[in-house]
Amino acid sequence: MPNPRSDSTRSQEEALRGLVLSDPEEGWRRFWKEYGAFARSLIRKYGFSPQDSEEVFQELGIRLLKNETSALRSWDPERCSLRGFLAVVTSSVCVDFARSKFHKSSKLRSDYASANEIALALAVDPAPSPAERLERILQVERLQRWLSEWSKEGTLRDRDQLILEAHIAGMTNLEIQEVAGVPKEEVANRLHRLKERLISRVRSINSPLEG
Q1: How far apart are CA 175 and CA 165, in angstroms?
Q2: Where are the domains of the chain?
Q3: Tens digit of pLDDT for each residue in 70-116?
Q4: Whole-structure pTM value
Q5: What is d(CA 209, CA 205) in angstroms, rounded to the nearest whole number?
Q6: How far apart (Å, rounded) are the C-alpha atoms in residues 208 and 37?
Q7: What is d(CA 152, CA 53) in angstroms, rounded to the nearest whole number?
Q8: How many CB atoms lie within 10 A of CB 195?
Q9: Is residue 158 within 8 Å of residue 78, measured between CB atoms?
């Protein structure tokens, strides 16, 4: 399904990427002016301290600059908006940072009652708290691996993967509507179908998996 955002919006997004690649100083200045507040709002959803939030934001900038902006070069305008792309990258940086913080402070629980039960709870919980999202960080990664596997198998559409990744990151249906380019009602319907699929996957696993 093509992204229904306007041709002019897509052209502006592609032009901004082109500017970043051709004139990094001016391009990144405009990029962060346009999307900086949005990225910070996503980071805040994870419940980090102000100091950690700033560190995550800086790490996001480093991630985007890494390997000669390879992440930004890989963005596919046909799959999602530039805002949607940034939402996924920001979520990944937040997940990595949270896991690192857990390991450093020895707060990562070693006695998960059941990896399957936690993954199932996450799959059906429409708005887990920041604390819950952080506690379930390994399960979030598990879900993301499943999405990647299904995408490679051709059994999951790119748009659906983006919607669920944004949902896992804590975005509301209204926010997902903006980044995925589909009506809010359709977001809800797709999430329902995707959750049912995840629940079936979780229930098919009879014992907790490692990592």
Answers
A1: 12
A2: 7-203
A3: 889 888 888 888 988 898 888 888 878 877 765 444 333 333 334 44
A4: 0.59
A5: 8
A6: 39
A7: 33
A8: 18
A9: no
